[in-house]
Each structure stands twice: as C-alpha cells, then as structure tokens.
C-alpha cells in the first residue's frame, strides 16, 4: 500500500482528512515504533481512493502474520529460539543498547520521509532490516554457535559443509 498514491488520488477535501489522520497516526508511530495504526490509515484510505480492497486485505493479513511470530504454534522438537515479533516495539526491545540508537536514527529518518511523502513503506523496511539483529541479540547462544562455525571454516575445517556443521 502506497500512501503517496492515496494522497494523489483523493479529492481535495478527502486529502485534507487523510493528511490529518495520517499525521496523527505517524505521531504515534514516532513515539511507539508501532507501524500498524499508520498502515491501517493508509489501507482505509487506499480503498476510499479507489484501490483494490483485496490488496488492502492481503496487506493487512501479511502484516498481521509478520507481527505475530511469537503466537504461532511451535513444534515440540523445534529449537527453543526466543522469537521476536516483527514489530517496531518488539524489535527495539530486543536490540542491544548500541543497536537501539542506530535503530532510532533509521526509524526517525524513515518517519521524516513518511511525513514528507505520505509513504510509510520505509518504516516497514527499517523494522524488517533490524529484525535479524534483534533476533541475534535475543538468542546469544545461537550467535556463539555461528561464531564457532566461522572459526572452524577459517581454520580450514571443511566438514562444516558436509555434516551440517556438527563437530565429529
């Protein structure tokens, strides 16, 4: 969903209402890192502007699926990874203090762009880009396993490529 398209497609009176709702939702997003209320404004106005309702519903469904990783059933034999929801607040909370500062800067830049362009998609991208570091930070034991595999590769141990990385 592209809020810039919505902004261009609306009549002047509707555009003013969209701008007001968008600005209000963006102000909340800046405070909480929660993008979904802003995305809902864009979806609602997308349909009002003549966009496809199925596309809006599909976007809402995808966003909900991404945001609810921790509520998905996990198989008992699955690795006990601490899942991080793919939402701004969850990602921010799972980051290290240094990464939080960089996340805040990236998020603020994306929010500034969204305010100027009415396009919130860069905010979604920032959360997605920081999700992997957040997961790594939430699961330090997995990082140690990865570092051990890297150490073995650097030492010339090619067995990591044939036996799944487990030491013999």
Oligomer: single chain
Radius of gyration: 20 Å
DSSP strand (E) fraction?
A: under 5%
Q: Percentage of helical residues?
A: 55-70%
Query: Unreliable runs, pLDDT <50, ≥5 residues?
Result: none
The total count of helices amounts to: 8
For the largest beta-sheet, the strand count, sense and barrel status come to:
none
- The strand count comes to 0
Mean pLDDT: 88
Order of helices and strands: HHHHHHHH
Instruction: State the end-to-end distance.
Output: 50 Å
Class by alpha and beta content: mainly alpha
Shape: elongated
Structure description:
The chain is an all-alpha fold. It contains 8 helices and no strands. Helix 5 packs parallel to helix 7 and helix 6 (97-117) runs antiparallel to helix 7. The termini are far apart. 23% of the residues are buried. The mean pLDDT is 88.
Keywords:
single chain; 168 residues; mainly alpha; elongated
What topology emerges from the helices and strands here?
Layout lengths: L2 H7 L2 H21 L3 H13 L4 H15 L20 H7 L2 H21 L3 H18 L1 H15 L14
Helix pairs in contact: 2-3, 2-6, 3-4, 5-7, 6-7
